[in-house]
Specification:
Layout (H helix, E strand, L loop, with lengths): L10 E10 L6 E10 L4 E6 L5 E5 L6 E2 L5 E6 L16 E5 L8 E6 L2 E8 L2 E6 L1
Antiparallel strand pairs: 1-2, 1-6, 2-3, 3-4, 5-6, 7-8, 8-9, 9-10
Length: 129
């Protein structure tokens, strides 16, 4: 899926998933889904080759991984950068593709600011810019 397909869509909801192991605090989110007002769900995550993945995908349910912990899924809190832009239209999307890799970053522009999504050492990082 092209990241450009986000342009012109209104962000209706943001859902994330977190890997919980033992009693430690969750890291992450491991992935994020941007739910548009027209029913489209855009999945942002990373791959083992450290590329940023943008794909059409509905949110999953959480699941138990036995001794490896569990994955929980739910709405992101207000501390997440995309939360500030729920209800806003996506104005622009800019991708970064270094010459020898795939997509490593994506910036999503809203009327009130931008969110940068990037793969960093295999982890998804989100930041307001």
């Amino acid at each position: 899926m092209s990241a450009q397909s986000l342009v012109g869509r209104r962000l209706a909801e943001v859902v994330g998933s977190w890997h919980l192991y033992g009693s430690g605090a969750p890291r992450g989110p491991a992935d994020v889904r941007l739910i548009a007002d027209r029913g489209a769900a855009i999945h942002l995550t990373t791959r083992s080759d450290r590329c940023l993945i943008v794909a059409a995908s509905e949110p999953d349910a959480g699941y138990d991984m036995g001794g490896s912990g569990r994955v929980t899924v739910g709405a992101v809190g207000e501390e997440m950068p995309f939360a500030d832009h729920v209800g806003e239209d996506v104005l622009e999307v800019r991708e970064e593709h270094p010459p020898i890799t795939g997509r490593v970053a994506l910036e999503v522009t809203f009327p009130t600011g931008r969110v940068r999504c990037e793969s960093w050492a295999g982890d998804l990082r989100l930041a307001s810019v």
